[in-house]
Write a structure and sequence with these properties.
Metal Binding Protein, Guanine Nucleotide Exchange Factor, Chain A; mainly beta; six-stranded mixed β-sheet
């Protein structure tokens, strides 16, 4: 079991399946979303993800002219899990508070879009696009 919450603790969730792979997206959208080199996420199937509290405190923003939606806590502004596709959720890895001891960066995606100052220093597989593109 994996547990996580936003910075203020108003929104919390759990993942009921074993997760270990972290994906780091280096695209320009994710860099702007975090203000950093990208966003580190884990992927969970919808049936293994459950909000524990604060679902009514989730706000969203859709990027105009793009199929991209961000979710964040209305109270503290922390980035929150969101729909990856119809079957899976992406979960910002930094939100995980319990059960993430086995997490390791396994993949870097959209490396072709990474910032000039970004240096990847781990053994995660590097894909120029998303998931082996």
């Amino acid at each position: 079991m994996v547990y996580g919450e936003c910075n203020c603790g108003v929104v919390a969730f759990e993942i009921t399946t074993d997760i270990k792979d972290v994906y780091v997206c280096h695209c320009s959208i994710c860099r702007k979303y975090t203000g950093a080199a990208g966003v580190a996420v884990v992927i969970a199937h919808n049936d293994a993800f459950r909000w524990r509290r604060g679902e009514d405190q989730i706000a969203t923003w859709k990027k105009p002219d793009a199929d991209w939606l961000s979710a964040f806590c209305r109270t503290c502004g922390s980035a929150l899990p969101g729909a990856n596709d119809e079957e899976r959720m992406f979960v910002p890895a930094g939100l995980i508070t319990e059960g993430g001891e086995r997490l390791r960066v396994a993949h870097h995606i959209w490396v072709g879009s990474k910032a000039a100052w970004d240096e990847i220093g781990d053994d995660g597989k590097q894909d120029m696009e998303a998931f082996g593109g």
